[in-house]
Structures are given as C-alpha cells and as structure tokens.
Design brief:
By secondary structure, the chain is α+β, with helices and mostly antiparallel strands. It has one domain: Glutaredoxin (3-Layer(aba) Sandwich), CATH 3.40.30. 30% of the residues lie in helices and 30% in strands. The protein contains five helices and nine strands. The strands form two sheets. The chain has a seven-stranded mixed sheet. The protein has a two-stranded antiparallel sheet with strand order 6-7. Strand 6 and strand 7 form a beta hairpin. It is globular. It starts with 11 loop residues before the first strand and ends with a helix.
Length: 155
C-alpha cells in the first residue's frame, strides 16, 4: 500500500453513469478512495451498504466517496441501483489505478493463490495528499472508522 503523507496518484475513470472523474475534480475536498474486488458479492455489498448507511455523515464532513473495482460501468450501475448507493463507483478495467494505489495483491482462497484487488482504502486530504491508509478493512465497520479518523484530522 502507499504510505501516509504521499501524493495520491492521479486518475481518470468512468463512473456508473459513464461520466469521467479525475482526482483533480476533487481538489480542495476530502476524498475516500476505497477499492473492492467485485460488485454484488457478500463482502463488497456489506462494505458498500455500510458506507451507504453512513453517507449522510460523510456528506456532513465534506468527504467525497469513490468506490473502485475492475467491474464495468454497467455492472456498477446495476450494483448501485440494486442497493441504492448514493456515491460514485469508478470502473478501472485495466487495473491501472488499482495498481497505482498498490491495491492489486496476491491473495489466496481455498488453498489457491491468485492476483486480485485488495480491499483497502485511502483517505485523501484537500491538498491531494494521502492522509490515512487502510490496508485491510472490516467491510461492516470500515465506514465508522473512517468517519472517526476524518473528524480527528479535520480538527
């Protein structure tokens, strides 16, 4: 994972509505960039729904939420609609942003190893600097931890 106090890598990706988003679009704002393996899977759904349920608190703190996976904009649209996700989901089919944020890792399941997206997050400050790295997250509790950390950092 990237480290705290480093410049967040730039990106330009399509969202679930096929609109382009860049990190520069959010200059001057706090941004949560969270990486997840796949739309509509149990852990990813739990994490997205926990962020959805806390979304008003993210907005109150002025934090933009960007979820990223390799899934297509069409897949993201279905996922966002199904679970009424109010935040942006970005599609990174090439894995370029995922790799730039060091979130493509060797994983293992059922005794087999493979390369996949690490469930991790970055809280980026208004100057485009990584303020906090979350290399491993508990999908159900991650949103609350980010809000606590952000509140501390914004004091």
């Amino acid at each position: 994972m990237l480290e705290n106090n480093t410049i967040a890598p730039a990106f330009s990706l399509l969202d679930q509505d096929e609109q382009t988003h860049t990190l520069a679009d959010y200059a001057g704002k706090w941004v949560l960039v969270y990486f997840y393996p796949k739309d509509d899977t149990p852990g990813c759904t739990a994490e997205a729904c926990a962020i959805r349920d806390a979304y008003n608190d993210f907005e109150k703190q002025g934090i933009v939420v960007l979820g990223i996976s390799k899934d297509s904009p069409k897949s993201h649209k279905k996922f966002a609609d199904k679970y009424e996700l109010p935040f942006i989901l970005l599609s990174d089919p090439s894995g370029g942003m995922i790799s730039a944020y060091d979130s493509f890792k060797e994983k293992s399941m059922f005794g087999k190893t493979f390369m996949g997206i690490n469930r991790g997050s970055y809280l980026i400050n208004p100057d485009g600097i990584i303020a906090r790295v979350y290399p491993k997250v508990d999908p159900a509790n991650h949103a609350g931890q980010i809000l606590i950390d952000a509140e501390e950092m914004m004091k």
